[in-house]
Amino acid sequence: MQDCKRVVAVCLSPTHRLSKTPALEIRAVAGLGIEGDAHYGATTQHRYDKRKAPDRPNLRQVHLVESALLDDLGSRGFDVRFGDLGENIVTAGMSLTALPEGAILRIGAEARLQLTGLREPCVLLDRLRPGLRAAVGQKGQGAKPFLRGGVMSRVLATGFIRPHDEVTIEMPSPPHRPLGNV
């Protein structure tokens, strides 16, 4: 039996800090991101990227992670809760990092998010829990690590997102490109 693709938790933070606070619902706004979140905006809001290229389009409006990642970290002794990795949305029943660039997630009745890339685990993770950054990064083939820090997306259609909302995936036209770092 295939797992139901769904939202497990939603989180936001009005200030630039690693962890976000769980909420009952969040509102995704087309072209801007999560209303009330520090990364809300049409241009990059990530502090490091904003210093380098303040007019660059915001490809990191919404951060999503899989509940399986949080479960794995917990089984390895890391006390990690919803929002601790900086995610806005926690999902279950799908492998987000296996989806191609441009895949669209329809969430709930109206929200639509387009995947833009992988989130590279931030150095701040080790300040939250020593060793967490290495635990989120996982060795892949060759010297390049496979990143499990979740995926980044931009909002295509405005809508509320709540825990238990169903998620459907629309694949982009072939050829599919794997997600790269953004």
UniProtKB/TrEMBL annotation:
PROSITE patterns: MOSC. Transmembrane segments: none annotated. Keywords: Plasmid. InterPro entries: MoCF_Sase_C (IPR005302), MOSC_domain (IPR052716), Pyrv_Knase-like_insert_dom_sf (IPR011037). Residues 21-170 form the MOSC domain. Gene3D superfamilies: PK beta-barrel domain-like. It holds the Pfam family MOSC. GO terms for molecular function: catalytic activity; molybdenum ion binding; pyridoxal phosphate binding. This is MOSC domain-containing protein. It comes from Paracoccus yeei.
